[in-house]
Amino acid sequence: MKRYFFLFLIISGIYPGLCIQAQNIGPEVSEFVSKILLARNQSNELLHKHSWTSRIEVIKSNEILNIMIEKNQYDQQGQIKRTLLNEQGAKMPKAFLIREIAESEKENLEKLLYGLRDFLKKYNLPDMTQVKNFISAASWQVDAASKEFVFTGSNVEEDGDQLTWRVEDGNFSTTKIEVHTKFQGDEVVFTGTFIRMKNGLNYMAFAEANIPSKKIILQLQNYDYIQEL
């Protein structure tokens, strides 16, 4: 529905790149926002009916430390059940003392991995209330080249954080998010790229979290979405 994009420009008198506050929008753009919420809600419902595979790589100082492949599926309580399919780690040193240190580092790395993954998941705004709160407080920008709406907000989930959320005006689906935040005191830069399936499922296909102070990068790929129900 490209007409919403052009209506936004005509009615609001906005030139490409100009940023405005969400509360200043007119009824036509409010309808566009309603379409975004509807598309997000439908996608969330579809996601609960699918299983998918995820691949996580942990990279430190340009060296791959760990690769983990999991199958994911929602249970009847609405929680994600993860099944480990394969894991490959760096070879452990042979010396006993060095091996002990390496095992300890691996445990700390796993805690970081799982903790950061759960922490960043909320920036995908899975809950409809989160989406509404974010949009109501965000500023707007129109990307004339990609014909996307760009929402930018701060203090979204943590004090001092910033979230940029890009939505295309055809199917009202998320195309990309960019996050600047802190996790356990460290700066984190997180980006996620999304894909929309023909049935309307809009999912994060690739994501990368960079922790410069630790020289650690986490890369995530989600794929093989299969409808189970």
How is this structure best described in words?
This protein is α+β, with helices and mostly antiparallel strands. The chain has a single domain, classed as outer membrane lipoprotein receptor (LolB), chain A (Clam), CATH 2.50.20. The protein contains four helices and eleven strands, in the order αβαβββααβββββββ. It has an eleven-stranded antiparallel beta sheet. The two termini are 30 Å apart. Mean pLDDT is 83; it is low at 9-23 and 92-98.
Overview in brief:
This protein is an alpha+beta fold and 229 residues long. The protein has helices at residues 3-12, 27-47, 96-121, 128-137, and strands at residues 19-21, 50-60, 63-74, 80-89, 139-143, 148-154, 162-168, 174-183, 186-196, 202-211, 216-227. The two termini are 30 Å apart.
Strand-helix topology:
Elements: H1 3-12, E1 19-21, H2 27-47, E2 50-60, E3 63-74, E4 80-89, H3 96-121, H4 128-137, E5 139-143, E6 148-154, E7 162-168, E8 174-183, E9 186-196, E10 202-211, E11 216-227
Strand content: 35-45%
Number of strands: 11
Largest sheet: spatial strand order: 1-5-6-7-8-9-10-11-2-3-4
CATH topology title: outer membrane lipoprotein receptor (LolB), chain A
> In angstroms, what is the radius of gyration?
20 Å
Helix content: 25-40%
CATH architecture: Clam
Report the major sheet: 11 strands, antiparallel
Mean pLDDT level: 83
Structural class: alpha+beta
Total helices: the number is 4
- List segments where confidence is low: pLDDT < 50 over at least 5 consecutive residues: 9-23, 92-98
Question: How would the global form be characterised?
Answer: globular
